[in-house]
Amino acid sequence: MQKIYLKLFAALLLLNLSGCGYNKFQSLDEESKASWAEVINQYQRRADLVPNLVNVVKGYAEHEKEVLTQVADARSRVGSIQVTAEVLNDPELLAKFQAAQGQMTSALSRLMAVAENYPNLKADQGFRDLQAQLEGTENRITVARNRYIDTIKVYNVAVRSFPENLTAKLFGYQVKPSFTVENEKAISVAPTVDFGDKK
Q1: Which residue has the higher pLDDT, 84 or 97?
Q2: Domains of the chain from N-terminus onward
Q3: d(C-alpha 177, C-alpha 93), whole Å
Q4: Stated pTM of the model
């Protein structure tokens, strides 16, 4: 009789596990990893464009060594960060990754600003092609990041919602960090509008 009760208890436990969110967490965890992989894929695509872009700009703007060096350094920093699944669960690692990507974005912006000073460079077909690819990649990065943010939001809501939070605690699922705006304080301050002195 005791074996029957044990089997019945085991069957109820299995039914309860399937209804308590365990499978949902498995699915959401895999979705977050897939979304993260797409973010990394797009950032890698951008990093791969950088050497070609720098070489084209070098041909026209050799004396802009500081900007070219900043871009190369930013690419090196991006490449030095090990991007593993642990980044998904570690806010500090994600912040370092974001900082490195932010430096790359900033360096590329300075490079594009320098290019504006060289009409022959802007007219170069190779440069224009690379610029179009870079713009397309930046758009893909934005889309991939937004998908990742949405996936993490669904995951985090599940981790924090009852009764799924009990399953999350039981199996060690924790809230995952998400991308944040690089300078949240700066965007929270209303811009100053100055139309000059009225006469």
Answers
A1: 97
A2: 22-181 (1.20.1440.20)
A3: 10
A4: 0.72
